[in-house]
């Protein structure tokens, strides 16, 4: 009940004496005495073998009179028993020393001392009485509870120990045993005629008049013991003893209620000498005792027996008096009264309970002092009696009604009471569930099934017109939330804010959906936002728990979910997740799975956007940003949103959220298309058009009404709407698979263009911005061309041309929107694209135009060259959806790309915007420049940033980073005198490259941001890389792949790539690895000539052997830079090695004649020669071994050359290192496990090389290395050669070819290995 345990020794003594340890010494001594007496009786023959009751012993002693012999024997017996008790006590204490603490030992010692003192006083008082009576009194004093006098049944005192058990079943069993035994005792006691013989002596603490005269001594003792036990805080003593008292009082009618009340006060009286814990235990004990009496049902029975009985008034008065003593006793005291009230009829409540002295004063002063328990009692009693009464004072309205109770004035008068209910936290006070039941009495909602979202929406639509009772409930709830929740609790302390959230959770299970906006008010949402914005907040976990419960409550109901999302975002200006750093709104939005739920949410978002009264009361805060879960297309737009007023934040969130509804929907295509149309129409209306005649128009063709906000939205919001339309169309295009005949009914792009045309023809509707003549002309041409391509697409059916037409149509649609977004920038590209469309699909319909677009006949460039140029010109300033459309077009046209078009793309990758103006020309830097020229590099690029992502296999997949960074602008000026090295370009290519760069510079001037021109160039390169990746994915076996590989490798090796942008290098590396080296196909066909492959092979071998060098110009480079340089060197070496393997695979696949392969073999011989002669040649022997292992024919042709170099090499290290390569070639040259013909061929081949092998071994053993490790390598090589020779039975020829001095050297250096070979020869 809120009491806390204290560790004082006095409290522990009270615990032990009052709970289950009281009279422990008495009980033990009395049991021992009775056992000793029984044994003596059996020995004397005065008792039967079975257990004899103590009553018979007492009768025999009384009949014997005052016989001195008997009294003396009893005295001696008592002395012996005392001695034995002392001995047993000491033995017991010694045996229990290990299991009890020193404090418990002191307690038991004190109890034994007290018992001995008590028994001694009994003996001294009994000397003046007759001996027979003295014996009877002595036994009555010590053993009344163990065995009853005369013929009374036995009562086992051990049950009291089990009442304090923590196990509820043990406590219940103990109570049952206690009541059963005491009922038997009381029944037998009631049948006795001479009760005065039992009551005439000392009556076990019954000296005073306790009112229990009709009860047996054991029963009286048990009642006292139970009353004392409820005051104990040890384990579960209060629960167990209170249960025992409840059942006992209800089971034995002779126990008087007035006596119990008096005995409770007497036994648990609080004295001035008691300390805090002792006082608390006594008061709580009285509370539990009163609760036991109330639950026993005896008060009702007494009233039925005697309706004038004052017991109920006395009982209620005692509880009111007890509640006034301590604050923590009020609520449980009221709970006890309410337990009684539930059992009593209305008549008793009116005439007895309400007339209790002090109760009316309690009610009258409750408002001023803030007595919430008085309010709780008044509400429950008013619910029971259902009549108006002035007894409740100002707590309840008179006449009473729910609307009167929840009126603003009356709630204000109850504010003090309700604010005071926080004292019992973290538990919620009992008055709040009562108030919630009254507030939402008729709103018991059925359980919601996860499949009932649609039914819930239908019910929501039917019940939009609220009944009068629901309107009253909404009014009452409004007053309750405004006055109590917002006015009293949320504006107060942390405890009261905690209480406010707890009360909200009580409301949720029965809260109708129409009341969600009332409960989730502005102040409550702002309180949540304030708390969750700081993790160190004291209420952070409370707010988190509230949000979790709220999310669970709306989990399976779309109507609730919509209302909660709208409330949270409306009162936080669309930034709830952003400020609170949670994903609450995002997760709720992701739970829409049905068409009906999505449509309902979309409609609510539209209403929120158009509603002018949605603006929250929150003051403007320019530092706040939009929700971080929003998907805005570019940094420009984020900046523009950042400059919006506070009222536009919510609108921007609505614009971002509408397309995101489609992400998690798992609908059939038709249902998803309907949802897409709703989103598309709203975004197009708000972003593309404006109305000159009011805020609402009707389209008779579309049979729909369209609305705009009363105040025109900003241009930034219009741009956001158009960008979301672009994103929606791009996602719809990715979801398209096959084009069907019913194009208008299933194609979102076609629907948008028809919608755009229809709205444009309404006189009162115009575009949101005026276009220039060129843009307007391009705008109309794009619309017309899209219409023609759409018609042509329907005619193509499911052919390959249909995919091309579909991709071109979506690119035209994106261009239409780009013209609106960025006027003056796309009109030229639009004209070029229209020309490409006409030439790509040369039908009379598409060619029916004026000759302004026609070019001179012979000088007309190829269609694909024009298309590639157009696509490249669109890339620098394109948005993410635009790039996706460009990639889709390129995907379906890339098989027709010419070599010139491919070279234009590759030149972009190699282009450098600003090469270094001053270059050091020392030897080291010249070596670095050699790296650049190694693969024929013409230019190098330098960049700062890059974007990541791959597009090859994902049909138009674009980078999220590009969507943000791709249109960021630059502030820094270009350095003067930028001089590009444009070797290898003709005039036409130079002109086109200048065009691309001019677009980048124009982009730089138009956009605001911190990006440099180099970062813009890097973005352009990465977008071109996406196109090249698509090309490699669609055409992996074309000979042009070699050209792409060569240029990408050049760009990767260039030092400017590493210095300018690490991510650009990583992207090129990824394309080389995934799309070239590890591709399933590779360049094939007659067009792949050795003349193309040989230079690449030679350059890669040189690159693989380049040493790692530090630049002299760098003084004391940091470890980080050194590590980066070393990592890049390893990547370049790895690139060269993998390139070599890939080129050799292509050469072997072509199956060139051996005569044509001589140049390839010469390249390897030259590499080997340089390997042996030059220390700067750092080619790894493992790389050479891998070449021989993969392409054995190379090893066979260079074997003799390798043996010669092993003999003549001046480098001891290289000679020893090459031995592994010799063994690797030998393993592929001969086969010791082949069949007879194979072994014969191997033997013949090896025999032809035996002289040179002998010469190599001679040189090795006669010039053994000095280092131990190298000598070991030589011995290992010789042993393996001997094994091969032995396995092919060539020992004799080998020994014959070996010179005599070599024999001696072999025996000296090789020992057993060579001797074994000679033995085999013999």
From TrEMBL:
A Pfam match: DNA_pol_phi
One term under GO cellular component: nucleolus
Compartment(s) of residence: Nucleus
Start-end of Basic and acidic residues biased regions: 21-31, 65-74, 112-142
Residue span of region Disordered: 1-149, 615-643, 938-962
Gene Ontology MF annotations: DNA binding
Keyword Cell inner membrane listed: no
Protein name: DNA polymerase
């Amino acid at each position: 009940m809120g009491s806390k345990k204290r560790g004082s020794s006095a409290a522990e003594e009270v615990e032990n004496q009052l709970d289950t340890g009281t009279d422990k010494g008495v009980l033990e001594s009395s049991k021992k005495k009775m056992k000793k007496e029984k044994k003596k009786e059996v020995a004397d023959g005065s008792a039967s073998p079975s257990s004899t009751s103590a009553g018979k012993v007492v009768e025999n002693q009384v009949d014997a009179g005052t016989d001195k012999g008997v009294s003396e024997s009893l005295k001696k017996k008592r002395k012996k028993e005392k001695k034995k008790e002392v001995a047993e006590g000491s033995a017991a204490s010694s045996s229990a020393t290990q299991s009890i603490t020193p404090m418990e030992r002191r307690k038991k010692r004190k109890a034994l001392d007290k018992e001995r003192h008590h028994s001694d006083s009994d003996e001294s008082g009994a000397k003046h009485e007759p001996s027979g009576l003295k014996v009877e009194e002595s036994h009555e004093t010590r053993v009344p509870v163990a065995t009853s006098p005369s013929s009374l049944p036995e009562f086992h005192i051990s049950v009291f120990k089990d009442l304090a058990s923590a196990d509820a079943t043990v406590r219940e069993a103990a109570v049952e045993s206690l009541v059963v035994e005491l009922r038997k005792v009381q029944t037998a006691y009631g049948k006795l005629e001479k009760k005065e013989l039992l009551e005439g002596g000392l009556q076990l603490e019954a000296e005073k008049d306790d009112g229990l005269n009709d009860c047996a001594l054991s029963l009286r003792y048990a009642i006292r013991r139970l009353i004392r036990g409820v005051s104990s805080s040890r384990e579960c003593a209060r629960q167990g003893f209170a249960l025992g008292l409840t059942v006992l009082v209800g089971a034995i009618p002779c126990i008087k209620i007035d006596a119990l009340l008096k005995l409770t006060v007497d036994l648990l009286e609080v004295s001035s000498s008691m300390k805090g814990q002792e006082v608390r235990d006594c008061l709580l004990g009285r509370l539990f005792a009163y609760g036991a009496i109330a639950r026993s049902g005896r008060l009702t029975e007494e009233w039925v027996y005697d309706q004038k009985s004052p017991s109920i008034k006395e009982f209620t008065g005692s509880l009111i008096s007890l509640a006034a003593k301590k604050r923590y006793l009020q609520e449980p005291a009221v709970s006890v009264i309410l337990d009684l009230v539930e059992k009593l009829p209305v008549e008793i409540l009116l005439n007895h309970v309400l007339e209790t002295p002090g109760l009316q004063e309690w009610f009258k002063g409750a408002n001023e002092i803030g007595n919430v328990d008085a309010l709780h009692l008044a509400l429950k009693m008013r619910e029971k009696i259902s009549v108006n009464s002035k007894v409740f004072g100002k707590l309840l309205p008179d006449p009473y009604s729910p609307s009167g109770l929840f009126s603003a004035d009356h709630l204000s008068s109850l504010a003090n009471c309700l604010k005071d209910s926080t004292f019992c936290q973290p538990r919620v006070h009992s008055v709040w569930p009562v108030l919630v039941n009254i507030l939402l009495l008729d709103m018991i909602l059925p359980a919601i099934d996860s499949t009932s979202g649609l039914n819930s929406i239908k019910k929501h639509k039917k019940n939009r017109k609220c009944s009068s009772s629901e309107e009253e409930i909404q009014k009452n709830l409004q007053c309750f939330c405004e006055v109590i929740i917002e006015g009293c609790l949320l504006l107060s302390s942390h405890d009261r804010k905690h209480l406010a959230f707890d009360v909200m959770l009580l409301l949720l299970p029965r809260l109708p959906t129409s009341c969600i906006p009332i409960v989730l008010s502005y102040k409550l949402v702002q309180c949540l936002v304030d708390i969750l914005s700081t993790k160190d907040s004291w209420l952070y976990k409370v707010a988190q728990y509230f949000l979790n419960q709220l999310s669970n409550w709306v989990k399976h109901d779309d109507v609730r979910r919509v209302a909660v999302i709208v409330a949270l975002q409306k009162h936080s200006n669309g930034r709830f997740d952003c400020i609170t750093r949670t994903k609450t709104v995002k997760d709720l939005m992701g739970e829409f799975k049905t068409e009906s739920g999505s449509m309902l949410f979309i409609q609510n978002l539209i209403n929120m956007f158009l509603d002018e009264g949605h603006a929250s009361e929150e003051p403007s805060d320019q530092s706040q940003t939009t929700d971080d879960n929003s998907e805005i297309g570019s940094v420009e737009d984020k900046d523009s949103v950042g400059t919006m007023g506070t009222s536009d934040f919510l609108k921007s969130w609505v614009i971002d959220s509408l397309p995101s509804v489609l992400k998690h929907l798992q609908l059939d295509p038709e249902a998803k298309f309907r949802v897409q149309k709703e989103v598309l129409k709203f975004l197009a209306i708000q972003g593309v058009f404006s109305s000159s005649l009011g805020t609402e128009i009707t389209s008779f063709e579309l049979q729909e009404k369209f609305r705009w906000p009363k105040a025109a939205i900003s241009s930034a919001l219009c741009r956001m709407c158009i960008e979301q339309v672009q994103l929606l169309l791009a996602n719809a295009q990715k979801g398209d698979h096959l084009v069907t005949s019913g194009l208008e009914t299933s194609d979102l792009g076609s629907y948008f263009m028809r919608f755009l045309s229809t709205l444009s023809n309404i006189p009162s509707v115009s575009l949101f911005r005026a276009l220039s003549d060129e843009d307007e002309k391009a705008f109309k041409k794009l619309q017309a061309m899209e219409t023609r391509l759409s018609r042509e697409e329907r005619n193509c059916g499911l052919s390959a041309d249909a995919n091309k037409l579909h991709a071109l149509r979506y690119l035209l649609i994106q261009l239409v929107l780009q013209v609106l977004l960025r006027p003056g920038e796309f009109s030229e590209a639009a004209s070029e694209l229209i020309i490409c469309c006409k030439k790509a699909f040369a039908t009379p319909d598409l060619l029916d135009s004026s000759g302004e677009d026609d070019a001179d006949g012979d000088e007309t460039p190829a269609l694909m060259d024009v298309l590639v140029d157009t696509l490249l010109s669109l890339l620098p300033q394109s948005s993410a959806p635009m790039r996706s459309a460009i990639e889709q077009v390129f995907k379906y046209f890339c098989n027709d790309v010419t070599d010139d078009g491919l070279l234009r793309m590759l030149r972009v990758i190699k282009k450098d915007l600003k090469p270094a103006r001053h270059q050091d020309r020392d030897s080291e830097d010249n070596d670095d420049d050699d790296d650049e020229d190694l693969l024929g590099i013409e230019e190098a690029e330098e960049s700062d940033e890059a974007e990541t992502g791959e597009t090859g296999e994902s049909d138009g997949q674009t980078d999220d980073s590009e969507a943000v960074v791709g249109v960021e602008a630059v502030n820094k000026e270009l350095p003067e005198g930028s001089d590009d090295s444009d070797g290898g370009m003709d005039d036409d290519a130079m002109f086109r490259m200048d065009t691309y760069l001019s677009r980048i510079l124009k982009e730089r001037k138009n956009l605001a941001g911190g990006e440099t021109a180099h970062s813009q160039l890097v973005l352009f390169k990465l977008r071109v890389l996406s196109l090249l990746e698509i090309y490699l994915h669609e055409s992996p076996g074309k000979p042009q792949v070699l050209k792409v590989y060569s240029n990408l490798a050049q760009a990767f090796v260039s030092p400017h790539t590493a210095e300018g942008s690490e991510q650009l290098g990583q992207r090129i590396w990824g394309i080389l690895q995934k799309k070239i080296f590890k591709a399933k196909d590779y360049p094939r066909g007659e067009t792949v000539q050795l003349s193309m492959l040989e230079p690449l092979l030679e350059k890669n071998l040189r690159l693989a052997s380049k040493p790692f060098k530090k630049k002299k110009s760098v003084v004391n480079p940091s470890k980080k830079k050194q590590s980066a340089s070393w990592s890049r060197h390893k990547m370049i070496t790895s690139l060269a090695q993998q390139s070599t393997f890939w080129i050799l695979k292509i050469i072997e696949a072509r199956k060139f004649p051996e005569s044509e392969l001589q140049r390839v073999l010469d390249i390897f011989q030259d590499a080997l020669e340089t390997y042996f002669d030059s220390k700067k040649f750092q080619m790894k022997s493992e790389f050479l071994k891998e070449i021989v292992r993969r392409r054995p024919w190379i090893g066979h042709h260079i074997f003799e050359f390798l043996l010669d170099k092993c003999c003549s090499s001046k480098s001891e290290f290289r000679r020893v290192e090459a031995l592994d390569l010799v063994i690797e070639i030998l393993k592929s040259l001969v086969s010791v496990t082949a069949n007879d013909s194979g072994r014969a061929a191997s033997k013949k081949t090896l025999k032809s090389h035996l002289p040179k092998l002998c010469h190599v071994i001679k040189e090795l053993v006669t010039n053994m290395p000095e280092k131990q490790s190298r000598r070991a390598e030589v011995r290992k090589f010789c042993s393996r050669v001997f094994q091969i020779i032995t396995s092919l039975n060539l020992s004799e020829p080998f020994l014959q070819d070996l010179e005599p001095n070599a024999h001696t050297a072999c025996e000296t250096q090789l020992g057993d290995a060579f001797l074994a070979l000679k033995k085999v020869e013999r």
